[in-house]
Amino acid sequence: MKKLITAILFLILSSPLCFSASDFHFSIEPRLSVSYGELNELLYGSDENLVSQLDWEQKCLFNLGLSAGFSFHNFSVSALFDYSLPLGTSYMTDSDFNHNGERYSWTEHPIEKNININTELALAYEINLYSKFSLIPELQLNYLFSLFEAGNGNGIRNDNSIRVYGIDYRRHSIFIFTGFSLKSQITSRLNIKASFFTAPFIYQNSFDYHHGKKHPFSSNDIQTGCFTKYKMDFSIGLKFNDTLSIKLFSDMLMSFPDRGILYTDYYGDKMELLTSQQSGASIKYIKAGTSLIINF
After folding, report:
1. From residue 36, how far is each of 58, 110, 242, 251 by CA, in Å?
2. Helix (H, G, I), strand (E, B) or coil at 246
3. In whole angstroms, what is the distance from residue 258 CA to residue 75 CA?
4. Which of 226, 233, 240, 282 could form a disulfide with 257 if both were Cys (CB 3.0 to 4.6 A apart)?
5. What is the domain-level CATH number for residue 268?
6. d(CA 195, CA 243)
């Protein structure tokens, strides 16, 4: 047993000596981008028809980010962080529908606080197909955090003008994406890459608070799903030297609504599961930007 343990320790400790420094690569990537998107908060009635929809606008956002990557031969691991700053005023629209699917109430609220964080952890393996083409299967863990505070709004209900109190909303989203990229090395300095991903696992947890003097209330909704989120990426990379490269990129996230459970204190003093209704959530955005890649 001692000989076996000694042999295992020897293999573990001596394995890094079997590879040269050129086998390992590390890079950091400051990134700037702008994005436009929308989060949707949905409520379905007992007949599964849509009864309420809140659309949280995200236009236009300026994203400050940083990514870092580590590669060993064809394997690579990368991490990404983006923090968004609003460039202008976005709005939340709150719509209610009757049993016939007709909207009878609509209000618009300015979003006074807007926080968005996007993080990503990815594992990939590059398969060389031809001299200038490669296929890259990839697995991604994506976490999104959004927080909004919408002020008092104005609108119409049953053809009458109304003014209503504001709403606060925050959402935690976890997506596991899987997919592939196709990369083409046009020249020794120029490459292009196109990617497509879908999410076999989706988890979303949202909280909202409706302000009001007479009847303020809160709700918490949870959705899980699979293959309702799709992401497409496209990038062009230009290499200056072995240390510096620049990249132009665009990302797009599309989704179908996921349905789930709803807890609320609308009908009482405590948060309780509402079995007569279902919650729903969806998201979409498009993003474009540039990054500077620094290789070590």
Report:
1. 6, 16, 34, 11
2. strand
3. 33
4. 282
5. 2.40.128.90
6. 25
Residues contacting residue 74 through CB under 8 Å, at least 6 positions apart: 125, 126, 127, 128
For residue range 99-151, list pLDDT tens digits in order.
Answer: 888 999 999 999 999 999 999 999 999 999 988 899 999 999 999 999 999 99
Q: What is the CA angle 166-93-111, rounded to 5?
A: 50
Residue 20 lies in a domain: no
Q: Is residue 27 included in any domain, yes or no? A: no
The count of structural domains within the chain is 1
Range of the domain at 161: 34-295
Using an 8 Å Cβ cutoff, are 253 and 285 in contact?
yes
Across 45-102, the runs of DSSP E, i.e. the strands, are 50-72, 75-86, 91-97
